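Consider a protein example.
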Amino acid sequence: MSLKRLTIVVLVSVCAFVARATAQKNQLSGLVGRTFISDQVITGSTFSDNKLRFGNGLSFEVNYARRVMSLELLSLALEVPFVVNPDEDLHTHANPVSAYYRSYFVTPAARLNVFPDLGVSPWVSVGAGIGRFSGSSAPIPSTQGTTTGVFQAGLGLDVKLIKRFSLRGEVRDFWSGVPQLNLTTNKSRQSNLLVSAGIVWHF
């Protein structure tokens, strides 16, 4: 093979590799799961059952990530998880469902994957952003929506399906302020524990 042809082959191969590597730097995922929130004690209540209980709200996550560093065993990606819990029921001593609210979380984060290019890749994520609680109904009406700072920490596992798609299972804790309701509880912050699974598209 002549030097000219060899050079062309090498250049084409490099360009194809770079294009493929670039194509694999981005991820877009969609997940469905449940958000779990622990009970809170209602301060000043005279009832023996004085707890505010949260239902396990059906939640949805959309996540965009871009790989910014890649080593043989580790990779670092910057991600933006956006989580919506559209209808979270609250229970008190008086009624099985006395109020509801919906929550939104956006927490830009750094995600570290182990064995990123193998079939199974565990990962950890840490980030911070904002959350919003809104909407309620009688007999515990909310006076206003609540915007709060949020710290996010998560663990997950990606399993490759085919060339550009993976399965993902994850647990993320969004540590936030509490919703503003017309009652006071013993908490000023709460854990919103999301357990979810879904599909990741690599492009």
Q: What stands out?
A: The first helix runs from residue 3 to 23. Helices lie at 3-23. Residues 6-23 have pLDDT under 50 and may be disordered.
